[in-house]
Amino acid sequence: MGLALTEATACLATGDVPVGAIVLGPDGAVVGAGRNRREADADPTAHAEVLALRAAATALGRWRLDDCTLVVTLEPCLMCAGATVLARVRRLVIGAWDPKAGACGSQWDMVRDSRTNHRVEVVAGVREDECAAVLREFFAAQR
Questions:
Q1: pLDDT for the residue numbered 51
Q2: What are the φ/ψ torsions at residue 63 (nearest 5 degrees)?
Q3: Using an 8 Å Cβ cutoff, are 36 and 48 in contact?
Q4: Threshold 0.70, pTM exceeds
Q5: End-to-end CA, the chain
Q6: In the predicted model, is pLDDT for residue 114 greater than 90?
Q7: Residue 143 confidence (pLDDT) above 90
Q8: Residue 47: CB partners within 8 Å, gap ≥ 6?
Q9: What is the DSSP code (8-state) at residue 104?
C-alpha cells in the first residue's frame, strides 16, 4: 500500500484525484503501477487501476492476471471493478472505501457478484486512514 500511496501523491502535480494502484505478480514483485491521469491525459478511462492493470498485462505478456493482486488506495469505481473482474485478478486490496462511487462493497459489489464469470477476494481497510487523508486534503484544497 505504501507504493500505491506514493503513486497517489504523484497525482497532485497534475491536479488529478490522488488515487494510486499497484499490481503484484505471483511472486509478490510489482509488475504494474498506475495513478489517476484523467486530467493529465484528458482521458476519462485513465484511472489508476486501469493503468496499473494495463502495465501488468504488458509486463507479464498476458491479459489474464489470475495470479496477481491489485492494491489500490481507494475502492474502485464500476469501470475499474469491471476491469478487475475481466482481468481475472485473484485479490483486491483496498485502502479507503468510496461511499459515493465504490463498486467493491460500498454502492455496488461488482467484484463479488455471483452473476459475473469471476469473483475477486477483497481485503479492505489497509492503511485506510492514510489513504482517506490524502483524498480529504486534496478535496479540501479544491474548495
A1: 98
A2: -90, -25
A3: yes
A4: yes
A5: 27
A6: yes
A7: no
A8: 19, 34, 36, 38, 76, 77, 79, 80
A9: B
Can you tell me the distance from the alpha carbon of 69 to that of 123, in angstroms, rounded to the nearest whole number?
Answer: 10
Q: Specify whether 49 is catalytic.
A: yes
Q: What's residue 18's pLDDT?
A: 98
Close Cβ partners of 52 (under 8 Å, ≥ 6 residues apart): 21, 22, 23, 32, 33, 34, 70, 72
Report the C-alpha gap between 5 and 33 in whole angstroms: 11
SS3 of residue 2 by DSSP: helix
CA distances from 121 to 43, 54, 71, 88 (A): 29, 20, 12, 11
Contact of 81 with 110, CB cutoff 8 Å = yes
Three-state SS annotation for 108-137: CEHHHCCCCCCCCEEEECCCHHHHHHHHHH
CA atoms of 100 and 62, how far apart (whole Å): 33
> Which listed residue (7, 39, 49, 128) is catalytic?
49
Q: How far apart are CA 21 and CA 40, in angstroms?
A: 17
Express each pLDDT in 51-99 by its tens digit: 999 999 999 999 999 999 999 999 999 999 999 999 999 999 999 999 9
